Amino acid sequence: MIDADRIKLATVLSAVDENFLVALANKGLVRRALKDLEGQTLKIEETDNAIKVVGPDWSVMMPVEGPAKATDDTIASGITRQILAAAIYLRDNWSPKVLSTLEDIERPHPGCTPPDADTVPTTKSAAPSKTSSEIDPARLRETLLSLTVDDLSKWAGKKLVSDLLVLLNDSMELEVESKLGLLLRLPQHSIEIQIMPGRERGLKLLESMLSTAPKQMHKKWVATAIILLQKRAGKDLKPGLAERIDIESPRTQLQVLQESRKLLVSMMDIGVAHPSTRLIERLFTLSISASAVHLPRLSTLLKTISDQVSQLVSKNVAADSQNLFSTMSRAFCLIKALEKFAEKNADETASSINFPAHLAGVARSQYDPAGDIKLTGIGAYNWQTRSGFHGLTCLFWEAERKRFLSWSISRPSNTFSISDAEQAYNMEQIWSADSADKLCRSSFTLKDARVNPFGRISNAQQSSVAEMTKAMFDAKTFEGRAFSDFADARAYAAHQFPIGLKVSNALDRVVILEPKSWGNRTYDEMRQRFCWEIFDSSNHSIRLTLPWESANERAITFLESLKPALDKINRIVVRLEFSDDDVTFEPISLLSQGSRSDDTVLNPYFDQQLIEIAQTGLLDRLRAKFGRQPRIQTTLSDDESWDHVQNYFDINEQSPPHLIAALSETENLLLQLAESGTKRLNENLAERIQRLGTQLSRWGLSELGASIQSIAEAKGSCGERVLWSDYLCSLHRQLLCMQAVSNK
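Structure (tokenized):
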């Protein structure tokens, strides 16, 4: 192997991190590879065009292009754990030596004058400057810009590319990051595309790209990112092959709404349990269309539906036709509301309709200048979404405007684990100042801040931190958002409860509770969640809960171990979480008058060590010896108290049983219709629906009853009526739950 290739491979391997390896394979294989390397010494041999790594019963050929092109002699195909192990071993044991040798060569000896660049002879060691351009992000960017429309059309499909050329505009944000090649990020859609350094061009370059998109959507999102990159660079995109295709994609807002509604109804006619890959493509195109005509809320819903359909098509374990049906009914009603607004506010002279923000939505990537703002950190937590993202969020209080603000980072779960969140919490600098660990318990001034409409603070480089001091809190610190009377807290929760299409700001659901005393800690076995009851001065109670999920395990361990009196906890930062039949108070952080570690903010997700005492190791051994528990006992609920735990805010406790039974029967019937298809109903089913509609009207649910009866009376497709009826069921459950919250 020549010097140039050796140095290029060493440079590529030196940039390989866990996220890159997970993107190549998966988290499980990376862990197995690390396990295989424990106590192992591998043999490294150099060939003409690769580095050979020899293990106990395997060997890997690592070419100049790096792990993505490596091969091994096992029977497995693709990226194996042996290839991952070889990459890790070379990164840790071979690359540093090669790169340090290069530094020694380039470093002049003391007392010697460095030779002029023009006098350096051309040798094998001078070649790295040439090949290093293949790793240079600027050169890789130029390679992406050189891709033609014909290249994309051959790879992703002519129809898709022709649609994207028309639909994509400046309303879609694209972030470009130099990280082992290039990383293209579409923040509005939570998609990342990794372009590896190498010599590939054209179709081979496209085939080598990695993305966080579902397999069926990979080519579509890669093509989207590349076209956006080229448009931002001012490249004149000539359609080429695509110009011979009739472009049918909707362009106006009303066309997008009409096409989206028709697609949802056609899905209902076919049956949501019978999706197709063609359906995924249509949903993708409409999602991009909605984003292009400034309807981000509809765009997000269509993307969610597309992802849910993709899970059903691929038979993913997370696939759920009921969730798909619920999302479709919500999207359908949003479309109807937008169409109704357009009908009432039609203006033939306007090129577009100025929809209200609560219906159209606001792009999360839109950050506005906020000047210098004074912030006080009140906690940090990690989180994980069902859509496959993991992140870290810090919360701050802005006293001047009496509001909560947040800073967050998020990555796909396959590239960002709980340990990564903890490392970011302790190590990653925010606004080039300090780590989240420090800022989330400090008061400071953030200069040149930028904040989006949802209260999220940008991590912009121009922002800086000044006047940082320890966070301190008094009785008036959280005026309007702190509750010592829990009846007021429940009234606030009822006011924030999302009814219908209403979407509240997530930070409006953050409140401060001031407990007078602390009750028992229990474990809700049925709902798999940790519970801790707290009381105010009037002995009114609120139950703090945390679902038993991987992202919450450390927080639950912390809360089980916490001694509120010892750490002088006087306030709890909680977020309100809502479902159609429940509201929960989930603790984020704890505020103290001065804990054992002299901190005023304790974060259950990260600060276990701050509530441990110096003799913890000794005490653990003594407790194990004498059979005593190291933490305050968290008990399972017994049969007598079970109903109280389960129905703390459950609508079943305070609503008439016949209404709950009727709603459940209606929802089950609608789901059955949605799964089987709504094009035609048989007579027996129509009669059953007719009886149910009459019964609902008799019990006072007249709007829902009329909607159900209209399904039975439909002569053709009843897809729209089924979607509307499901939305009404959800609306009734929300209202019953809000009433339960208010009356508790």
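The radius of gyration is 29 Å. Residues 11 and 95 are 7 Å apart (CA to CA).
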